Amino acid sequence: MDTLVPLILTSLEQVDEGRSIRSVLRFHIQESDLTDFEISTLYYHIFEIYRKLNLIDQYIKTSTSSFSLRKIKFRTRALLRFATQLLKIEKEPISRVIELLEPYYREIADLELDDLLLSINDLTEDMLYENKHDFASRAALDYFTPTWIIRKFSEQWGEDFTKEVLSTFLETMPMYVRINDLKSHLEEIITGFKEQKISFTIDSDIPNLLKIENSPIPIPRTKEFQSGKIVIQQKASALASLVLDVRANDQILDMCASPGSKTSHIAALLDNNSKITAVDINRERISILKDRLKLLGVKQVAIIQSDSKELSKITTDKFDRILVDPPCSSSGTYSSRPENKWRLKKRDLRWYVDLQKDLLEEASRLIKQDGVIVFSTCSLFHDENQNIITSFLEKNSDFKLEKPLPIIGIIKKTPYGEVQELYPHLHETEGFFVAKIRKKK
pTM of the predicted model, to two decimals? Predict the structure, then answer.
C-alpha cells in the first residue's frame, strides 16, 4: 500500500479536476509497472472513494469549520478524502493512517492534519444524520447519492423502487463482451477464452454476447480485445442496434457515434453490406471513432465531424434507419462511473433534455417515409426518456411508436405506445431506455 499512495493521490486529483476514473486509471496502468494486485488495489480505492464521496466529505465537513472543502487545493482534498476512507470506511487504526500519510504532510502545510484526522476518527456515523429527517436526505447518506437525484427518482417511482435502484450503484455490474462477427466467431472466442482460463456464460437474449464471470487477466489485455475480435459493451447498449432492425442496403445514420460500439455492431449485423454515416461533433472523439472502427474491421462507413443538430443544412441525404443515442446524464451507469453522479447538476439535466429534443427533431427531418428512428439513452430520468418521446409525438403526428423488439427489459406504456426500460437491479446491466419510432407512409 505504501508505494501506491502517490498514485492514489494523483489519481484522485485528476478525477477531481474533471477526468473520468476509467481514463485516469487506464493511463496510470499503461505508464506504471504495476502488479495485478496493485492494479486491483488502485481501482478499489478510487472507485470506493467516489462511490461514497458524499459520506466521506460529510465526515470532513463535520469535523471542522476552519476551511471550505470546495476551496482547498486539489492535492489537499485528495489526501483528506483518502485518509477519511481509510479511517471511516476501511476502519484502519489512526496510527496506521498517520504513519502512511505523514510523508505527504509537507504538501498541505496549511493544515494541522493530525488534529483533523483525530477529529474525523472521533465522529460516529449517527452524528452525520443529525437534522436529516426526510427520506431523500437520509437516503443520500444511506445510498451515497445526491439528495436532488433521490428526490427525482422517488417522484418517478416511489421510495421502495428508488431504494432498489440506488442499492445497485454500490455494486459492480457484470462485464459483457460482444463477439465481433466482422473479425471472428463464437467458436474461436470460446476456444481462446478457455485457453486463457476466462470463465463466461453465453447471454440468452443478445446474440454473440458473453458475460464474463471471472478472468485471470484484464479483458483489455487479451489478444482477442487488442485485435478487435471482441468489444466490451454493456448488454443494454447492445440492445439499441437490434431494435434498429437494420436490413441489407439500408442507408443508416448514427448521429452520436463515438466511441463506435453501436456503429460497429450495426456494421457487424449487416456484414458490412450497408453504408453507415457516423457523426460526432468533437474532433478528439472523431479520432477515437476512426481508430476504433478500423480496428474492428468496419468498411462501409462515412465519418463526419459535425453538429448533428444541423445535419439537414449540410446534406440532402435521407436515411432508412437513424440511431439517436445522444449525450445524457448517464444516470443508469453510476455503478461503473460513480464520479458522474457528483458532477451532474440540475442545470446539466435541463441542457441534456434540450439537446436530446433537438437531435430527435433533426432526425425526423432526415428519415425516409416508413423509416425507423431509434432513440436510446443510458439514463434513468423520465425527463430524458419517455417525456422526450411524448413531447416529440405530440408535435409530430406523422410518426408513431412501434414495439422495441427484442424485449429483454420492461415494456412501459406511454400515451402513444410502448417503450422499453432496463434497470440494474432487475436486468444485470446498466439502466437504459429505448424507443422505436417509425415515420408513417
Answer: 0.92
